[in-house]
Amino acid sequence: MEESILNWLLEDANPEVKLRTLKEALKLAEADERVVECKKQLLASKTYERGLNKLRKPKNWDKYDALFAFAEWGLTRSDIGKDIDDEVFGLIEATDFKMLCGEPLLLRNLVKLGYYEEPVVKNEIEKLLALIQADGGWQCVSTNKKINDPNKSHKSCIKYTVEFLLLVAELHLQGRIMPCEEALVHYFTKRNIFYRTDDMKTPVFDVMLGTFYPSDPIKIGAQNIVYALRALGCDPKSQAMQEGYKVLSRHKLENGRYLLTDSKSVQAFKAGNVGEENKWITLYAYMAQE
After folding, report:
1. DSSP bridge partners of 252
2. Distance (Å, rounded) from C-alpha 84 to C-alpha 97?
3. Cα separation, 281 vs 213, whole angstroms
């Protein structure tokens, strides 16, 4: 990563991006003085205050978005304190993790926040990962029979499987190697990440070729997908990863920064404007190439 790009990501104006950059791009330890100081800055910011307010709202999806935000910013449960534990275990009790298609992403966020060793979280992850299908993916969980008739066999749902990719990648980054890794990686590499196996020029879903962010359970951008595959050890010189970098390069500006191509109308947190250069997309894109 060029120094000018790194300096942009480390600007004090966005302590949430700065913290994630320090911890994961520069790989500084939690006890490093720069990390400690950045955390203090973030925890005192309006950005964090908005996230905490969202966590305390009564609706489960507000809590879900808040947990995603804290995880993306590089915070942990110990940084946030007792408030987050009460909300996390309350959310689990209220939903049993079953938040429509969003369970694997919720689990990824909980792992990133430091909840893996909690038996209720660890057991749920083991149970879900054991449901991997023969093709290396996971089946749609919709209860709508028009979409997912339980009496008919179905191929895996790639949107749902992308969430598992992010979950397993996060576990791997924390030194927890899952038995499903090889099959899951092959699920994506056999299709050059984004494409139909019967037509390697047609994406399974167009959203995968853009830089959608912040991630939504059924909308995850190329920057997160390619980063997760790289985290799982995919060779940067492989055909699949080269295709991933090719897709990301479409969104790279002359100054080396990357564009945000799409987002929800109401973002999980303020991550930037569609059609403009974006620090989050840039950070993921460069980490995916390391």
Report:
1. 258
2. 16
3. 8
Task: List the Cα angle 148/150/153 in 5-degree steps.
Answer: 85
| Residue 273 DSSP SS3 | coil
DSSP assigned state of 252: B
pLDDT tens digits, 129-185: 999 999 999 998 876 665 666 666 668 999 999 999 999 999 999 999 999 999 999
SS (H, E, C) 91-147: HHHHHCCCCCCCHHHHHHHHHHHCCCCCHHHHHHHHHHHCCCCCCCCCCCCCCCCCC
Task: Name the strand (E) or helix (H) holding 5.
Answer: helix 3-9
Return the structure tokens found at 265.
């109308």
Q: What is the four-CA torsion angle of 217, 218, 224, 228, rounded to 10 degrees? A: 80
On whether the CB atoms of residues 193 and 243 are closer than 8 A, the answer is yes
Residues ≥6 apart with Cβ < 8 Å to 49: none
